[in-house]
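Lab notebook page, bench 4
Experiment: in silico fold of construct C2
Operator: M.H.
Input chain length: 197 residues
Purpose: comparison with the prior construct
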Amino acid sequence: MNPKIAIIAGSKRSGSHNKRLAMEAARLLGKTDVKLTLLDLADYPMPIYDGDDEAERGIHENGMRLAERIARQDGLLIVSPEYNSSVPPILKNAIDWASRVRRIEGRPVQPFKGLVVALASISPGQGGGMKGLEAWRPIMRSVGAEVITTQCAVPHAGQAFDEEGALADDAMRLRFDAMLESLIDVSRSLARTHDQF
């Protein structure tokens, strides 16, 4: 079975190192048997989540669209910058909206339940965004995702890539490859049922 895996970067910035790392993950996953989906936050603009807003107007349209895309996946790679030792608000907000979805095409669904999630980051600093990744773990578990242990935090972002866009450091490249392999393997073994809608 070919697992369905999506990649989402936690930044919309055009020069984002995390978007660049997400594209490298897409290149590597493109060489495997996975069915790959790239999700760009620029395609899903949403207001800050507010319970009163939801009660008055319902789930935001882009929250519904994102939830549907996620619900059709077996796995998700989050490539996220670290903001003040935590998560970027734009991606957290998107997940907050998507997690409120309970029905898609008239059928009950929880978009993140059983979804296999891998975490990666890249940062100019020595930590590589590790604190942000640790902050993502309880968030994703709280919405029902299965977060794999293997993760990758790439330091010194300015020197991290070679001319072709691959990770320049051999050890870091092996760590990144191992994380992707784990995501594929666990997504395949825990594949979700997609005939639910």
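Observations: The longest helix spans residues 170-189. The radius of gyration is 16 Å.
Next step: discuss at group meeting.
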